[in-house]
Amino acid sequence: MEGYLGETRLNVCETPYADYNIQDWIMLWIEMYGGIEGSHHKAWLIDQIARLLKSTGIVVKLAKWENGQKEYRLSLSDPSEEYRNWVCEMKAGEDGPDTYAYDYGIAP
Q1: What's the domain range around 48?
Q2: What mean pLDDT comes out for the span 6-28?
Q3: Is the pLDDT of residue 27 over 90?
Q4: Taking the CA of residue 23 as centre, how many other CA atoms within 13 Å lie in the half-sphere pointing to its CB?
Q5: Alpha helices (H) in 1-108, listed in sequence order
Q6: What is the pLDDT of residue 1?
Q7: In a domain, 106, yes or no
Q8: Which of 9, 40, 41, 46 is 20 to 30 A off residue 104, Cα-Cα?
Q9: Cα–Cα distance between 37 and 1 in angstroms, integer?
Q10: Which residues pair with 94 in a beta bridge?
């Protein structure tokens, strides 16, 4: 879009998402991405939900344009230690730490 001014990271508490709990965030992610076709995208959504459940932070940015249009953009921060440990547990098995694969999927 013409006249794009960029985006600014916001404190979640200063956005319409201030009162969201973990269930609200998960349902929002499902609403935003659950209808996208492809098993690789579904795997990505499952991984995003796992990240949310394992304390990965949420990033809210506000994009602005010269004409006054605004848009909230949501993403997750770097994976939490809790999430990384969980993935290690998922991959570990009788043959060592990488017995099983973990599918991170592909973002839509």
Answers
A1: 4-91
A2: 97
A3: yes
A4: 0
A5: 22-33, 39-53, 81-91
A6: 57
A7: no
A8: 9
A9: 26
A10: none
Query: Considering only CA atoms, which of 32, 34, 88, 26 is closest in space to residue 58?
Result: 26
The neighbour count for residue 83, using CB atoms within 10 Å, is 19
Residue from 22, 2, 1 nearest 12 by CA = 22
pTM exceeds 0.70, yes or no = yes
Stretch (H or E) spanning 20: none
pLDDT of residue 2: 80
**Range with the poorest average pLDDT among 1-5, 34-38, 46-50:** 1-5
- State the residue for tokens 């690789």: 40
Q: Is the pLDDT of residue 101 over 70?
A: yes
Sequence letter at residue 14:
E
With respect to residue 98, please indicate whether it lies within any of the assigned structural domains.
no
Overall domain count for the chain: 1
Name residue 82's amino acid.
Answer: E
Please report whether residue 57 resides in a domain.
yes
